[in-house]
Each structure stands twice: as C-alpha cells, then as structure tokens.
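Fig. S4 source data, part A: sequence.
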Amino acid sequence: MSKINRAWNSMGVLHPMVMAAYILVSSVTASNAVVSSVTASTAVVSSVTTSMAVNDSIGLSQYMIDGETLVSKNGLFELGFFRPGNSTKCYLGIWYKKMAMHAVVWVANRVNPINGFSGNLTMDNTGNLILKNNGSVVWSTASQREPRNPVAQLMDSGNLVIWNGGGAESNEILWQSFDYPTDTCLPGMKIGRNLQNGSDWRLTSWKSVDDPSPGNFSWGLALSDYPEFAIMNGTKKFSRIGPWNGLYFSGLPNLIADSNSGIIFIDVDNQNEIYYTSSSKNDSIISRVVINQTSKAYSRYVWVEKTHTWSVFESLPNDVCDNYNLCGAYGSCMTTAAQICRCLRGFRPKSPEAWNSSNWAQGCVHNEPLSCTGITESTDGFVKYTGLKLPDTERTRLIDTLDIGDCRALCLNNCSCTAYTNPDIRMGGVGCVMWFGDLFDIKLFQSGGQDLYIRMPASELDELQDSNNELQHRSKNNKVIIVSTVAAICGTFLLCVFVIYRFRRNSNEKSKIQEYMEGYVNDTDLPLFDLLTINIATNKFSLDNKIGQGGFGPVYKGKLEHGQEIAVKRLSHSSRQGMAEFITEVKLIAKLQHRNLVKLLGCCIQGEEKLLVYEYVVNGSLDTFIFDQAKSNLLDWPRRFLIIFGVARGLLYLHQDSRLRIIHRDLKASNILLDDKLNPKISDFGMARTFGGDQTEGNTNRVVGTYGYMAPEYAIDGLYSIKSDVFSFGILMMEIICGTKNRALCHANQTLNLIGYAWRLWKEEKALELIDSSIKESCVISEALRGIHVSLLCVQQYPEDRPTMASVILMLGSEIDLVEPKEPGFFPKRVSIEANSQLHQCEVSTNDELTVTSLDGR
C-alpha cells in the first residue's frame, strides 16, 4: 500500500532508535573551530558556560571543546556540552536556546558520558563527527559514503546535519541527528520503520532527569499489516492510540476537530519505509513530543510565550482506559460508565466471579459459540459496533483494493477472521482490514470513534442487520453445505484415528534421553514453545526460511504471531552429537544476560523434535562481512574496533562475571552475529564447558572446535582453559583487521596460515601490510598496529604467556606499553600429495570452516 495522507492534527510523533557507539579511537588532529555557548539552564541543562559566538557549523579539522557551542542560524537551537540535573557527568546534546527553560531534545553519547571537562568534538577526514574524552572516542557518526568538503550544521529545525559538498545548498545528507532521536520528537522527524535496512525510528525515555541513558519506556511503531503506535515498557505494550484511519488515530477521535495546534500530520507507507511525521502550520508554534520514564507517558508540549513555560497539550495515557488491555478479550473500556469495563454486546464475562471483583484480565467470551468450524459453511454473521478505538492490530491483514462488501465476504469465509472494517474512513470508507483471533484493548467513546464489524453466531445477529444477506448467502450454498458436511464427517473420523495412532506411538517411543533433556529444561525455568507455534513461525521449516547449517543441524528464521522474529536451531534427528549440545546450550545460557551474547528465548522438546529458539539477529554472521569484498566496505575501522571490543566484553563476561566460568571452545567469525546496529553477539554454546570458581583448566578425550581457531594445547593434548578462548579471540581479531581467513597463504615458496604470515611481517616490521585495504582510509594506524600487537600476544604458543580478556580490554583501550610477543602457536601447513592433487597451489585450506567433534586428545 502506498499513500500520503494529510490532516490537521495535534499529534506529532516520530523517531528512530539511538545508536551510541562505544568506540575507543585515538585523537584526531584538529585546528580552530567555530563555536558559541549558553547560560546555565534552569531546567534540564544545569551547567553551560557563556560566550557570544553564534556560528552554526563545524568542518574538517575543526573542533569544539567543553564550554563552547554551535547555535542555529536564527538562534532557536544550540549544540554543546551539558550536565543534566544534578549530575556531574557530561554529554553532547542539542537544546532550545531562546526558551527560558533549555529543554534538551537530543543527546549524542547518552550511554557513554564524559567525566570532567575534557570533551572534544571534531570532524575527521571521513566526514564523520568524533566525540572524544582524553583522546578516547566515546561517540561518532556512522556515515560510510565518500565525503566531499563535508560540513556539520545545526539547523533551525533542531536537526544536526552533515552536508556533503559544503553546506545545505548541496542538498546531499551524509548523516543527520533526526535519524537517531533520543526521547524527543521535533516537527520533521520520522517515527516508524525503514523497510530496506530495518532501522526502527523510535523514541526512548531518559532513565531519570539526571541520567539520559535509555530507560524502559519507548514510543514507536508496532509493525503489522495495519501498523499502529504504542508505548512500550521494555518489550510489553503499555498503551496505544489505535491505528491511523486517514483522518486521525482511532483512539484519539477528538484530535481531528482541534486545529488550534496548527500541526500538519503526514502518513507515508510505501515499499521502502513506513512512518508518520508532522510539521507546523505556523513557525511561531513551537512544539515537541517527549516520552517520559517518570510519568510513564507520551506527551506533546507547546511553548507558551506569555508565561514562558511548556504546556502539556496532549498526553497518553490520557485516562485509565488507555492502559493496555485493561478489560481483556472482547471487553470494552469506557471511563464514564459506572463500571469502566463491560463486555461487548453478545459476550459475557469468562469468569463472572473475577469480573464482579473488578478483575477483568480474563476478558469475555461469546454468549453462544460460533458455528464456523473451518470445514463446513458458516452460519455466522457480523454485528456493527460503533464509536470504538479499534482493537490491537498485531494479528491483522490489510488489503487496500477491496471494498467493505468484499471484505465481509472474505472474512466470513475464513473461520479465523473475527472482525473487519475500513482502514481508511475517508470518502465513505476505503480498503479492507481483518482481525484474526481474539480482540484486545477496545475503548468506547461517547462521540467519535470508529465502526467495527465483529463476527457473531446466528443466534445473536440483529434482525435489522445483515439478516437478509445472510439468508440469501445460505440458500445459494445449501447443496455445497450438504456435500461438504458429509466429506467433513469422514475426514474428521479418519483424522481422529490417525491422531490416536500417532499419540500412542509417540508415547511408547519416548526415550529416557528425552526425559533426561526435559528435566534439564524444567530446572532452568526456560519457556517451552509448542511445536505448532514453531511450525507456523518457520512455515513448516521451509527451505526458504533456512538461514544456516551447522554440526548441530539447520537454523531457520521464523516470525511469531505477535511479530517477534526468531532463529530456530533444529537438532538433526540423526545427530547424537546434537543431543549433548542441546543440553549444554540449555544449561549454560538460559540465564545468561549480556548485550554481546545472543539471547536464548526458549526451546521445544516434542516428539523427535529438539529445537532451540533464539532472538533473530538481523545482519547474520561476521564472516559474511569481513570475508566478502563487497560487504567488507560496510565495516570501517571504527565499526570493526567496536566489534572487537564487543566480542571481548562478551568473553570477559563468560570467563569472569557469569555465575560459572564458561569456556566457549568454538569462537570464530561465523559464530559472531551482528544486530541491526552491527553490534556483535557471541552465539553457539553447544561446545561450551563450565568451570567452578577456583578451577582454571580442564581436559577432554573429545576435542571439539574449528581448525584454524583452536589453541595448540587443546588441539594436541585436549587441554582447555580460558586461555584457549583467548587464543581463538586473537585469531578472530587478526581476521577482522586483515579481512582474511586464517587459512594457508603462499609466500616465498612457504605455506603459512594468516598468523604465521603476520608473525613474519611483524618481525620484519612490515605489519602495516596486514591491514585490510577496504579500511585503510578510515583506519587509525596506531590503533590497528596495537590491535595486531595484542592479537599476537593472544596467540602465543604457551597459555601462561597469553593475557586474560580483562588485560586484552585494558591494552586495547589505553596507551600502556605492551610487551613484545613471543612466537605464536602456529604450524606451517603440511599438505599431502593426495591433497595437493585436489587443491590449487595457492589456495591450500586449513579447513578453518570445519567443526571438529570426534578427535581423541592425547
């Protein structure tokens, strides 16, 4: 569906997700910058020094320090360093300059504050803004396009824009802060979803007035066929305003008649993006939308010049009926009623006792059951309900080419369809939207609201509504009903016989191994998914949904009914190894929580199926980026350094901060997943092992892992420890820096792997030749060399010489002197005559993609 709709509206909402990059990069040489500053704020900004400069931009090699600011052309907005509330921590942000209360509208480094007064903002030669604290990068922009005389300019809209070509005249944007809002939405911002790259434009609350880091509450678009806005408390819906119907949000019908706000509301929905935005009819009207952690509300503020204050124009939740799903399924909420929750006409409380005690969570059910079985013709019909906030649209289907009559017929012939209406109420109603399953979060209005046609059994149908149409519809299909009924009875009988047979067979075949595995799952309190749910989510494990294959078995992408995307690891039925891995993953990571570890959502043990359900990580594995010539350009040096740090933090958590020491034993590029912000997440814990608090190493007769990443003491003697993971991390770090797999390379008639080649260049003081050509322009040479140095320390021959992950993080993030590395634990590749006959001379592989699971340690 493609449409651009305009209406006078007081709701301006929009925003993408904030991406605050925690990157440690050395300082960039900078010269003079153009700056100004502001007086101390009486509201959010508590300490900013004063200056008379009024410049609005910063260019290449210019800088801005704490106490200096940029001011937009007409002096409406200001960018600089501030300290919120009573906090002593420093942030880079944008705030209103002319208002008596300098409300902050955007924060750059909200998750990584600066201590002291050492903040420094510069623009480097890649056209990116870099925020540093004592030489370490705490935030940066992420433009990957080639710059031509880039200039960062603070606009009078409150948008910080990096223009390509010298200024706004070029009309070419490299980066803009409007794409990364924090808790505030300004006119012109978008809120919704970029369907091409998956960016979620969303507002996220501050934790408190003293802490702008992301809180629990967010405001954004809940994506479905018929999308709508919702306030989220974590991952749960807190309040919603109903879908947009062409004139207003169905839950805010009063706003269509109110033009005092002077806000033009725009809805855009096409194949590239779906979002809502607003603009001001009159430049003198200054408004902003804020999601607030303390008030648990989404509020629109308008500046009142007379009183020099921000006035709340609209807020959500507005009343108790705006609390999500207060009245349960088929329950309607009305604030003016004696009892605010009541069942819709034709429904009764599911639990009368609970309902009378004002416990409405269980909702309502039909007075009489529906006749539709999915096999025979339905005798159901529809009753028109008026003045509603439409139900939650999570399970809907939108067809904008159908009229309301065709919509009714289509819904009637689908037994899962429970309601329908027009998604666009203009011009008498346009299009078709259908609901499937129970209807939740309905609100009744005394005036306004929207029509909804809800499925009802024939006994409940109003004689004045649709009765003639229903009779005609039934008479035309009497013959079909008789034939269908007979066929249905036979089919049902055969189906019952088959189900009974399968149930008895499965019960008899249930093994002790299955009971053993179920016991482990029950002990972890891990959610158990039903196999039917997983089948629906993955389209019955369709090949089109397959996204990977490992020794454990295939991995499929899926989507749950409420829209959450998942990755499902399916244990191969013939894999004895996979059963042990299944138990291991459930035991080890069910309760692990870290931003750099992939999250296990649950599992499924049903019949012969053993399934692990993970969060879906949208950008796949790291190896598909760094080893691909086209995609490697998407990972510049700052991003690669961020990935290295993320993996290091995840390993440190496993080795030191989790309840048990956890040794991953299979760390490699293909087991590092990248989310929508390219943040790394360590995955695949099927080969991991745990240690007690005082235990430091172990021994195994079953060596598992991947050639090219295994430490020598582990591959040869079966000895593993946290230093085994450090070795694998060193290999991984070298691959990230070099963009090359740790496989055999042909140099000077010798066959060496990447580490052997790197060691030789290091000894010859030619380490710069190792750096991936695709990152040389964005690379900070001193950091890359330091990374190579630390990598070589990690892959030293003897475990006692290797650093811990805590030391690795310290060495990468500081300027401390490093010891000279000793010879790494690599071996020149010896290739048999038979192997040489099969492989090209300069493409000898060390099989670093092969997962080894059956070697005997000596």
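Fig. S4 source data, part B ends here. The first strand starts at residue 3 and ends at 8.
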